[in-house]
Amino acid sequence: MWRFFRFVFRTLLFLVLSGGTLIAWVFYQDLTGELPAIERLTHFTPPSVTRVYASDGTTLLGEFYLEKRYPLPLSKIPLLVQRAFLASEDKDFYHHPGVNFSAVTRAFITNWQAGRTVQGGSTITQQIVKSVLLTPERSYRRKAQEMILALRLERQLTKEQIFEIYLNQIYLGSGAYGVEAAAREYFNKSVADLTLPEAAMIAGLAPAPSAYDPFKNLEGAKERQRYVLERMMEERFISYAQSMTAWQEPLTPSSAPPASYTDLAPYYVEQVRQLIQQRYGEDATQKLGLEVYTTVDLAVQKAAEKAFRDGIDVLCRREGLCRQQSTNHLDGGLLAVDVTTGEVKAMVGGYDFTRSQFNRATQAKRQPGSVFKPVVYAAALDRGYTPASIVKDTPISFRDGRGKRWSPANYDRKYRGPIRLREALTFSRNVPTVRLADAIGLPYLLSYAQALGITSPLAPNMSVALGSSEVTLLDMIRAYGVFATGGNRFEPIFIAKITDSQGALISESTFQPTPAIAPETAYLMTSILKSAIERGTGKEALKLGRPAAGKTGTTNDYGEAWFVGYTPEMIAGVWVGFDEKRPLGSGETGGRVAAPIWTAFMKDALGESPINDFPIPDGITVAHINPATGKRASGGRAILEIFARGTEPGTNVPQLASDLTTPEGDAFSPSPIGTPAPTPIAVPAPIQQPLLPPIVITPPPVVRVPSPPIISLPQPSIGEESEPSAIEEPLEESTPEFIEPEPEETEAIIDDGHTPADAGETHTPFFEENLNGSAASDPLPENSTGELPAPIAEVPPAPAAQAP
């Protein structure tokens, strides 16, 4: 009988235990079936702050973050701070397997007796699991999942790794994640510099950061600080005397000022943010915790902002624009690059970043007007022309594919007849420029512009030669940079290097100039652009007091004002206009609006640095020429002109130096700037790479003979004229087939040096039916000859790029 009852008891016990085990297994499977993978924590990289620095490597320009966090390895977090968190949050952290079962049981009984949650039993490991892998839901099921994951995590990571994640992940209020961010937020110092009372206060924030925020509840923060100090004393991390001294010490939180990138070089920092996102993804700046070292020089940036704003303010007062309340703001941009390193030293994308974040130096596409003309002349030089080549300044017309006629005209409506190429660009003559573009061919010109670094699309019609196609200021900086560096194209550098938060190098920029045109061509262009400053429309830049080359630009109706110029050390460009096209004011030209800004900036940026002239390549030579014919002079009136060796004009008449007289305008006469003997600037050797197709530029054969001495090259100063305005391109819908029009020679009205006759209304700059009198261009330089400029016709401009 007893055996029977014993058998039944054992059977029932077996069934109960088996059933309980089965139920437990099913419950466990249900709990773990939807658990997240623990690998998310073993490879966990929390979002952290990306910091942007100036070129000095220490000045903080701005920060980007989703969560304000500055991750640190455990070895760089003071032991004092570690012990404060251990004492208050998990004293047995280094002894339990991830779950403190006695603490959990104690918390369960206390909470059951109270009827609500009054005590927690979570370990540091459980807190990490809850914040990273699980939801904040409060339930026994979620608690069980938390414990399972904590046990698993302890088998995957060491205690030190888990503690490091915790101290960098925990939210401590006021937007601060981790102990480093909390130290900066509450005491404006690094965690390495925290005192005992400060460390205790930060550790006391862990359970309820908002409730114990010292900025809002200093008394509550002090109570929590006292609790942490007592726990540290109980765990024998500190003595009783240390605890009392720390508690009695006054607590004065002091927040760090926010690193707002609207204060220093805001447009520059925003450009850097966009570049990082293009390279590493949209979330890179907010999650990767990068250390970004830029090339901006804050002294140069300050000079740029002052010169730009002063120039805008002067224009506002002069034209009464400051009193006009409108969303269409007068604005512009300035960009400056060190030509020896390719580094962008300053960038102004607008008058006020808080008003508009649209970057007018890199994003705004506007008609460059005459600033584009040097591209045409450089292309012509590489097609066999020389500075002494004769170009016709006589009327010409083109017909588009629909039969409409376009007749470019000079701004003053006068024609000089045969004119040397140097003079044509110096005085910004429209008609010779268009004739050159027609002679070299539009496909070649457009490809040449791309080879110089202009990335904006250019319209395939003749008006592009006069700057009708919209480009960015950055485009023109790239193009002029080829002239400034002796023929090398380069991409301006905004970011010097990027590291991770621990200093490991991620990427580094190097100056890599690529051959684009022959050095001789680049120097010839520099020489002609020096003439544009010394005798042409850029005379304002003479106030710089050192050798410089540059070009003004003004579009129809005085809508845009440009100046792009360079010295042997730096290139800078200025654009001024309205976001939505409208006139700046009558007579507000590139020479009057943009050139003064450029000059004021360059004076401050270059300061007292040594004055240098542009180095002359070995392939440059000189010859006396007849200024009227451009041919080699054999006697009488002559000037000196420079050439790429092998392109000098020939003559059948023996030349006698005693027979030559040099009029004003000799290419090697003393410089009006009065600079000392030039010191060549060493330009880094270019990286040898193939040229961009389809251009293949072959410089003239160079015979190595002793080159002439380096001499400052002032240019001929014959009758000075104004710079014509840029002619805006015809509306595309009216010229769908305008690809390569056929030129038609028309009767010339020649300027023979006497008072010119009016060209009359028959010579319209655009379609003959489009006539009005609202065009603008740079004014005549002082002491120039000729009548006041007459208006030219325009075609309504294309819509301007809109600011976001």
Quick synopsis:
The protein has 804 residues and is of the alpha+beta class.
N- to C-terminal distance: 95 Å
**Classification by helices and strands:** alpha+beta
Low-confidence stretches: 651-804
Question: Proportion of β residues?
Answer: 5-15%
Shape: elongated
Determine the number of helices (DSSP H or I, runs of at least 4 residues).
Answer: 21
State the assembly state of the protein chains.
Answer: single chain
Q: Report the strand count.
A: 23
Into which percent range does the helicity of residues fall? Answer: 25-40%
| Structural Rg | 37 Å
Largest sheet: 5 strands, mixed
The average pLDDT is 78
Spatial sequence of strands, sheet with the most strands: 2-1-5-13-14
Secondary structure layout plus pairing:
Elements: H1 2-32, H2 39-42, E1 50-53, E2 60-64, E3 68-69, H3 79-89, H4 101-114, H5 124-132, H6 140-156, H7 159-169, E4 176-177, H8 179-187, H9 196-203, H10 218-234, H11 240-248, H12 266-280, H13 284-287, E5 291-294, H14 298-319, E6 330-338, E7 344-348, H15 373-381, E8 390-393, E9 396-399, E10 405-406, E11 417-420, H16 421-426, H17 430-440, H18 442-451, H19 473-484, E12 488-489, E13 495-499, E14 505-508, E15 514-515, H20 519-534, E16 549-554, E17 560-566, E18 570-578, H21 590-606, E19 620-625, E20 636-637, E21 639-644, E22 660-661, E23 742-745
Parallel strand pairs: 1-5, 3-4, 20-22
Antiparallel strand pairs: 1-2, 5-13, 6-7, 6-18, 8-11, 9-10, 9-23, 12-15, 13-14, 16-17, 17-18, 19-21
